[in-house]
């Protein structure tokens, strides 16, 4: 059969070769015909509900921290009195089968949140919808678990976080799913467990069958079906190279380039458990903690002790290295039912939302301060547009410090406060803003979409979204120069930093820190330790004179081939 290539929208790094194992939930059918034996349907619902709760609690007990919390949140849906009551009412009053009653009850809940354009909230909706399918599969006597074997690549429509955890003992080598995005809990847990996962591969279930030979290339976000003999041999060689390089990287000392330009390599996390990977690869701290992923339930946004416990665990585990905690970067549409904005990406999100919702802001800042006594915690403000916002938030932080002093709570009185630069207007005002902050973090994902006026999730204009365009590097160069005037350190925490191609250009522009996916730390460390700084400066100067992204990528690719041939063979050959 001819070799075919399918691309996904996001992935966790890794290359694996194996046989396909298909896991389908979308083939189930639900019968809406009225039932005669209502008691039997009620018993069926209750039996399956209790069975799933019991099984998932056993899995939850084996994990700590946020992974346990994710599972507990899904168990809570099954234990929710309103949900149980609604399902039973539909069986008793509408004579529905248990499967139909579950499906309708969950859909009623989902309809209330489906209109939200907040990507994180939409991901949670996908998880709840899939949860319903898993319940129905159990009711219909289908396998609710994934029948995987060691060495297989699982291909599914979607998976719950609990599915990934169930798979731990079955040892699959990779996972491919049709749905999911960069904020999905499934992808986050796969990254933590270092299982290569490719998501957003549209309609892949129509193309695969059990036992089919496949290659999952997480480096380039693609799945190769029925690879040729030469392709398999090529990828087998790549796998060997990756293993050798990672083994070598892990044993290295912290990064310092040949000309002593100190560039720190830190990790981005959405879950506390990802810190283990940062430490495994000798990363130099957490450069970005996306709290809206770890604390995805809006009810917890007002729970100070819950948040403080999470932040404290992280601060202790990463100590003495820094923990940069970004305040909730969410939109009002996620918090207020029925709240609508024409374009939420340009609306009430990030610091704009928090300044309107002072109780949520107060809760989170107090929780961060309570976790800061070790002195390694930093506060990062998201979606900053104006200097006035920075001044107002810093003033508010000082007010909260006074409260904690009265309460005799210990905290870091000199905690650093930095900003995310992701709005072009903020970037152009860096030299005016820098004196008012302790550090700057550049979010290239949002900066790119705002600079080019492109919604990166809109397939109709996706071709315009490219963070390798020379305009991005020009604006980053402007930010670095403005911040360095006041000796303020600058970090890049977007996808650009996780790419060796992007890292080598950023290095030449004079960046101080690169914050990347934890599993990418060894590869970015190789860039900043092996290449001479003066050579990257020459590359960066040339990039600033280029006219398009293709030209930039090609120049960076040739540069890496010349200076890092081992890494280039994995990435480009």
Automatic annotation (TrEMBL):
| Cofactors, names only | Mg(2+)
Q: Which GO terms describe its cellular component?
A: cytoplasm
Instruction: Provide the residue positions that the database annotates as binding Mg(2+).
Output: 422, 446
Q: Any idea which GO molecular function terms this record carries?
A: kinase activity; metal ion binding; phosphoenolpyruvate-protein phosphotransferase activity
Q: Identify the Gene3D superfamilies for this entry.
A: Phosphoenolpyruvate-binding domains, Phosphohistidine domain, PtsI, HPr-binding domain
Enzyme active site: 185 (tele-phosphohistidine intermediate), 493 (proton donor)
Enzyme class of the recorded protein, top EC level: transferase
> What Enzyme Commission number(s) apply to this enzyme?
2.7.3.9
Question: Which reactions fall under this protein's catalytic activity?
Answer: L-histidyl-[protein] + phosphoenolpyruvate = N(pros)-phospho-L-histidyl-[protein] + pyruvate
Where is this chain's protein located in or outside the cell?
Cytoplasm
PEP-utilising enzyme mobile domain span: 149-218
Instruction: Kindly list the positions annotated as binding phosphoenolpyruvate.
Output: 290, 326, 445-446, 456
PROSITE patterns documented for this protein: PEP_ENZYMES_2
Domain of life of the native organism: Bacteria
* Coiled-coil residue windows: 84-126
Cite the PEP-utilising enzyme C-terminal domain residue spans from the record. Answer: 251-532
- Extract the InterPro entries matched here: PEP-util_enz_mobile_dom, PEP-utilizing_PTS_enzyme, PEP_util_C, PEP_util_CS, Phosphohistidine_dom_sf, PTS_EI, PTS_EI-like, PTS_EIN
Q: Sorted alphabetically, which keywords does the UniProt record give?
A: Coiled coil, Cytoplasm, Kinase, Magnesium, Metal-binding, Phosphotransferase system, Pyruvate, Sugar transport, Transferase, Transport
Q: What is its main location?
A: cytoplasm
Q: Which family does it belong to?
A: Belongs to the PEP-utilizing enzyme family.
Protein role: General (non sugar-specific) component of the phosphoenolpyruvate-dependent sugar phosphotransferase system (sugar PTS). This major carbohydrate active-transport system catalyzes the phosphorylation of incoming sugar substrates concomitantly with their translocation across the cell membrane. Enzyme I transfers the phosphoryl group from phosphoenolpyruvate (PEP) to the phosphoryl carrier protein (HPr).
* Entry protein name: Phosphoenolpyruvate-protein phosphotransferase
**Organism for this UniProt entry:** candidate division WOR-3 bacterium
Q: What is the lineage of its organism?
A: Bacteria, Bacteria division WOR-3
Name the gene that codes for it. ptsP
């Amino acid at each position: 059969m001819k070799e075919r290539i399918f691309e996904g929208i996001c992935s966790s790094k890794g290359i694996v070769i194996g046989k396909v194992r298909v896991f389908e939930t979308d083939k189930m059918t639900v019968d809406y015909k009225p039932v005669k034996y209502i008691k039997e349907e009620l018993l069926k619902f209750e039996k399956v509900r209790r069975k799933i709760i019991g099984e998932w609690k056993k899995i939850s007990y084996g994990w700590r921290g946020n992974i346990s919390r994710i599972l507990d949140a899904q168990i809570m849906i099954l234990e929710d009195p309103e949900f149980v009551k609604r399902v039973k009412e539909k069986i008793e009053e509408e004579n529905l089968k248990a499967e139909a009653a579950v499906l309708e009850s969950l859909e009623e809940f989902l309809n209330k949140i489906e209109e939200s354009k907040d990507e994180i909230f939409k991901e949670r909706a996908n998880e709840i919808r899939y949860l319903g399918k898993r319940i129905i599969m159990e009711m219909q006597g289908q396998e609710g678990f994934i029948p995987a074997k060691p060495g297989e690549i699982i291909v599914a429509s979607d998976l719950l976080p609990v599915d990934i955890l169930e798979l731990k003992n079955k040892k699959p080598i990779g996972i491919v799913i049709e749905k999911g995005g960069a904020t999905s809990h499934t992808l986050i847990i796969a990254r933590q467990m270092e299982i290569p996962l490719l998501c957003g591969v549209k309609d892949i279930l129509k193309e695969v069958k059990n036992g089919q030979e496949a290659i999952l290339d997480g480096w380039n976000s693609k799945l190769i079906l029925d690879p040729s003999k030469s392709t398999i041999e090529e990828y087998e060689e790549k796998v060997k190279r990756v293993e050798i390089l990672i083994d070598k990287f892990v044993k290295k000392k912290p990064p310092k380039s040949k000309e002593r330009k100190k560039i720190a390599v830190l990790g981005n996390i959405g879950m506390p458990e990802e810190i283990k990977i940062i430490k495994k690869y000798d990363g130099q701290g957490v450069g970005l903690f996306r709290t809206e992923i770890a604390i995805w339930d809006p009810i917890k946004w007002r729970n100070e002790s819950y948040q403080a416990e999470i932040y404290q665990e992280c601060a202790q585990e990463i100590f003495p290295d820094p923990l940069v905690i970004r305040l909730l970067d969410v939109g009002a549409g996620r918090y207020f039912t029925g709240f609508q904005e024409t374009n939420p990406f340009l609306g009430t999100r990030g610091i704009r939302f928090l300044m309107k919702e002072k109780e949520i802001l107060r809760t989170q800042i107090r929780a961060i301060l309570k976790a800061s006594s070790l002195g390694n915690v930093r506060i990062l403000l998201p979606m900053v547009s104006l200097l006035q916002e920075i001044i107002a938030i810093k003033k508010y932080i000082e007010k909260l410090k006074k409260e904690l002093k009265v309460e005799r709570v210990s905290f870091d009185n000199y905690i650093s406060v930095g900003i995310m630069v992701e709005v072009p207007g903020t970037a152009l005002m860096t030299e005016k803003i820098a004196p008012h902050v302790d550090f700057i973090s550049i979010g290239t994902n949002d900066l790119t979409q705002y600079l080019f006026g492109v919604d990166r999730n809109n397939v109709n204009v996706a071709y315009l979204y490219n963070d390798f365009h020379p305009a991005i590097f020009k604006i980053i160069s402007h930010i670095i120069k403005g911040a360095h005037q006041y000796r303020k350190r600058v970090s890049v925490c977007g996808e650009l930093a996780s790419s060796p191609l992007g890292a080598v250009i950023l290095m030449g522009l004079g960046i101080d820190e690169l914050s990347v996916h934890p599993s990418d730390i060894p590869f970015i460390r190789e860039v900043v330790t092996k290449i001479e700084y003066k050579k990257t400066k020459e590359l960066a100067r040339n990039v600033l004179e280029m006219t398009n992204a293709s030209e930039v990528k090609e120049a960076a690719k040739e540069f890496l081939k010349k200076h890092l041939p081992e890494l280039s063979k994995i990435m480009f050959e």
